[in-house]
Design brief:
alpha+beta, five-stranded antiparallel β-sheet, 12 helices, 8% strand, binds fe (ii) ion
């Protein structure tokens, strides 16, 4: 009986969370609309969004479990901005940054892709691969974003830096300038990791979403030289544990439960199928396709 009551409470708080999250998405949408219509950023308006997002701090587990559901019901750019904001906020908290820095992270996440409101729609939502020229145009969203916000005195310089530099890479292979690690500030590095995580776990017109464990694998194996290893480590070591107990479908079609996440290799957890335990570090052919619940 106890179990049922707890489950019921869980469901109720999840519904409440989804409702509040939808409100946050709406507020962020208004904010982004206003900005892109040339109204400029009003500090009080942005604080509303920031406060409502920061309120959710206690519900970190819900945030993680709801991200996937939320993004399917709203337009990509808006929910992406909210998601990047939430993930950046979580990383900031996990890194024990002060409240001021965390608020800047929330703002930077919300605003990082504001320049995409100036990117032609056909490029932004093109189903296929972008041509070289189209990609060059797409890259400009970093500069557009910076220009939109630099006139607004209420936007902190660290937020401006994140808007301009969130596609820079540790090894200098990013854009718009090709800056290397030491020139990129910590808040920008956090937003970059959150941005990649959300983009990879989303369905887009040109690609299917990937399971978080595939994204963890990318971050462990292929992000070296691209993303900050410190920030990646904070995200992986904290976020992975939220998936313990979740049910997943495997590429074999079987259903399994995640029972243990190895902190040194979070992309390959120990899973349980029926009575059978499988260590994905040992059985390399097993792949997690999707989280079910
Ligand atoms: Fe971007
Ligand atoms: Fe983004």
């Amino acid at each position: 009986m106890q179990i049922f009551e707890e489950e019921f409470e869980d469901i109720e708080s999840e519904h409440l969370f989804i409702k509040k999250h939808a409100e946050n998405v709406k507020k962020a949408k208004e904010l982004i609309n206003d900005i892109s219509n040339g109204k400029g950023v009003e500090a009080s308006q942005m604080d509303n969004v920031v406060d409502s997002v920061l309120d959710r701090l206690e519900e970190r587990r819900d945030i993680v479990s709801c991200l996937n559901q939320i993004r399917t019901v709203d337009e990509y750019l808006y929910s992406h901005s909210i998601n990047v904001s939430l993930i950046s906020m979580l990383i900031g908290k996990w890194m024990k940054l002060g409240e001021d820095k965390v608020r800047l992270l929330v703002q930077a996440g919300l605003l990082h892709d504001i320049g995409k409101t100036k990117t032609p729609y056909e490029i932004l939502n093109k189903p296929g691969k972008l041509t070289k020229e189209e990609f060059e145009e797409m890259k400009k969203h970093t500069i557009y974003g910076y220009r939109i916000l630099e006139q607004s005195s209420s936007v902190d310089k660290d937020v401006l830096a994140a808007v301009l530099m969130h596609h820079e890479k540790e090894d200098g292979s990013g854009y718009p300038t090709g800056l290397t690690s030491e020139k990129i500030n910590l808040l920008t590095k956090i937003v970059s990791v959150a941005d990649i995580f959300d983009a990879m776990t989303s369905n887009r017109v040109y690609k299917e979403k990937e399971s978080p464990f595939e994204v963890f694998k990318y971050m462990e194996e292929d992000s070296l030289g691209k993303l900050s290893p410190i920030v990646v480590n904070v995200l992986l070591s904290n976020l992975a544990n939220y998936y313990i107990g979740d049910r997943v479908s495997l590429s074999s079609g079987e259903i399994a439960e995640i029972v243990y996440v190895n902190p040194r290799c979070v992309s390959k957890p120990i899973i349980k199928i029926g009575d059978r335990y499988i260590d994905m570090l040992v059985e390399k052919d097993v792949k997690i396709k999707e989280i079910i619940a």
